[in-house]
Amino acid sequence: MRILSALTVALFVVAGCSTSGSDKPTPELAPRGTQMTTAKPTRQDLTSKVSLSGKVAINPVFGLVSPVAGQVRYLDVKTPEKTPAKPTKVANVFANGKPTAVDVPAGATFSGRLADDKATVTAGQPIASAKHVGYGLVAEIKGEQAYQLSDALSSVQAQIKNGPGPFPCAVLGTIAALPAGTIPDPPPAENPATPPPSGGPVTNPAPPPGNGKPEENKPNPSEATGMRLVCTAPSDLKLINGAEATLEVVTEKAANVMVLPVEAVAGGQGKGKVDVLGPSGERVTKDVVLGLTDGKVVQIKSGLVGDETVAVPGPNLPPAQQDPNSPGGPGK
User: Fold this and answer.
1) First vs last C-alpha separation in the chain
2) Is the whole model's pTM more than 0.85, yes or no?
3) pLDDT tens for each residue of 193-215
4) Checking DSSP bridges between strand 61-65 and strand 126-132, what pairing results, if any?
5) Is residue 192 packed enough to be buried (19+ CB in 10 Å), middle (13-18) or exposed (0-12)?
């Protein structure tokens, strides 16, 4: 009986030791919010970029916008016999009686009207579509990226997957979504009848419609497109239709600005918080105004002098308080 009791006690002790051992924290992971290191603000040049996924495409369509607000008057554009080597004028926009030309760039052909003739248009509104002859790079743009990219198309770099790059990519037209283009029929040829000298039969009658002559080669109007960026690579690069590519757009630059590691800052959209360490190591949370970021560091516009020591990682922001009267609030 005593032997059985001793065995029972021994098993209980072993089981207890096993249970307590499983409660120990994983040695590789520190508890959430534990200060791991510190950082001090530094100064550097900063560039904000947006990466887009795209592909090589043949004869991509792009849009041309109105340069001014006014009334658009389209020209009758003939189908070119070869790729235009100089710009093609397709419309004038009249403002206060003064015309401003709208030209399709060299190397592209007119592909459609995007507004009615004599319509009142605003500056920056797409009014014509064009088709680039040859290879181009096309990247679809999400709606939330539109305003970020609209004024930042002067510097675009492209990289073909497992191919050439990075290389500068020249942007064509606008990133706005385009409606379907229209190409009107050419005006009828003037062939007035010659009146007879003395009541005789009419000479040189105008040819009746449907005279059996083949219709002139008329280009197909462009189809509607979503928001996308279209650019062209240097002519000496080898491109393959359908090849995947990455386009990097520089959206903003800043010189010699104060920055901190992104891990040291909590928040976003211009507002953030950092934990500044005091002389005794105490943490004081301060509000800061944020600027550009490249994913590694973030600009501190104001809130810090520049000689502080901040904790990394940054502070844990408390969850937003929920309105008790809102759907799903307490008691709902």
Assistant:
1) 61
2) no
3) 555 555 555 555 555 554 444 45
4) antiparallel
5) exposed
